[in-house]
């Protein structure tokens, strides 16, 4: 196995010349590879690769620490594209024993990093022009978002709750993907003073009383829908619940920072302004 840089010319020549069988680990990578025109080369993906929907029909290698080297190798890929840190060190070391190309990429946390990743992958596959076209479309979406926000005077507050059932609830704080997408959509973070994710408490809900509550579709479903939120202590006291201002989005769409980042940010910006 060798892991080469996306800027390695020989690697680029090989990828553009051969009919590689690809495994992707990371929904954003999968979406970009598909957008670049190589979706038919993907033979397996991970659980976060939910877009486009056709990717969900492929064999799954699992999710993060559940992924095993044997599962990857049994599919006989020519190439593995993965997010930094997505595969465990043990899996990476096992794969190093095989003659397999592996490339790692930083998961984007803002639109500029999204465009950088598109360029990296486009260069890797030798289709720079396609990458430029995707990035132009991202800029069009971001300009539409900018134009919309320039006409708004209000900045609603919102909180994001990561839910895996009523007993497993986390609140998003600063330096999380939530802070980045909220900032992009012109939304105030109701949760401040901490980073990443912390367990949700009734006290924090009452203190924040966000105007809007945002969840993943899967998270809201795990709670039994909007009405199921009433079972969470402190939830009934929030403005968001009282006014039924609860929003949910597909997890990858909201957090992936893929080519549709401008679209989801605009959708979120309009949703909290009811426009």
Secondary structure topology:
Blueprint: H1 9-17, E1 22-25, H2 27-38, E2 42-44, H3 69-73, E3 79-83, H4 89-95, E4 101-105, H5 111-124, H6 128-150, E5 157-163, E6 169-172, H7 177-184, E7 188-189, E8 197-199, H8 202-208, E9 212-216, H9 217-222, H10 225-228, H11 239-242, E10 246-249, H12 251-255, H13 261-271
Parallel strand pairs: 1-2, 1-3, 3-4, 5-7, 5-9, 9-10
Antiparallel strand pairs: 5-6, 6-8
Helix pairs in contact: 2-5, 5-6, 6-13
Characterize the structure shown.
This protein is of the alpha/beta class and 275 residues long. The protein contains 13 helices and ten strands. The strands form two sheets. Strands 5, 6, 7, 8, 9 and 10 form a six-stranded mixed β-sheet that branches. The protein has a four-stranded parallel β-sheet with strand order 2-1-3-4, with helices on one face. The longest helix has 23 residues, at 128-150. The protein is globular, with a radius of gyration of 20 Å.
- What fraction of the residues are assigned to beta strands by DSSP? 15-25%
Overall body shape = globular
* Biggest sheet layout: 6 strands, mixed
Helix content: 40-55%
Per DSSP, the total helix count is 13
User: How far apart lie the N and C ends?
Assistant: 52 Å
How many extended strands?
A: 10
The residue-averaged pLDDT reads 92
* Helical/strand content category: alpha/beta
Computed over alpha carbons, the radius of gyration is 20 Å
């Amino acid at each position: 196995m060798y892991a080469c840089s996306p800027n390695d010319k020989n690697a680029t020549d090989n990828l553009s010349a051969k009919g590689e069988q690809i495994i992707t680990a990371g929904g954003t990578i999968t979406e970009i590879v598909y957008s670049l025109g190589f979706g038919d080369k993907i033979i397996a993906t991970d659980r976060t690769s939910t877009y486009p929907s056709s990717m969900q029909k492929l064999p799954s290698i699992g999710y993060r620490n559940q992924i095993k080297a044997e599962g990857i190798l049994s599919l006989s890929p020519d190439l593995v594209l993965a997010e930094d840190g997505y595969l465990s060190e043990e899996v990476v070391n096992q794969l190093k024993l095989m003659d397999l190309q592996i490339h790692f990429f930083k998961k984007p946390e803002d639109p500029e990093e999204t465009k950088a990743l598109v360029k990296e992958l486009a260069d890797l596959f030798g289709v720079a022009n396609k990458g430029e076209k995707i990035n132009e479309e991202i800029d069009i979406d971001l300009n539409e978002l900018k134009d919309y926000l320039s006409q708004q005077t209000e900045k609603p507050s919102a909180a994001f709750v990561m839910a895996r059932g009523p007993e497993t609830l986390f609140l998003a704080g600063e330096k999380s993907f939530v802070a980045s997408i909220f900032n992009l959509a012109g939304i105030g973070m109701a949760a401040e003073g901490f980073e990443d994710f912390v367990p949700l408490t009734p006290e924090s809900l009452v203190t924040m009383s966000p105007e809007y509550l945002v969840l993943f579709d899967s998270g809201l479903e795990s709670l039994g829908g909007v009405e199921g939120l009433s079972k969470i202590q402190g939830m009934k006291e929030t403005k968001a619940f009282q006014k039924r201002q609860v929003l949910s989005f597909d997890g990858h769409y909201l957090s992936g920072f893929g080519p549709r980042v401008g679209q989801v940010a605009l959708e979120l910006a309009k949703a909290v302004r009811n426009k």
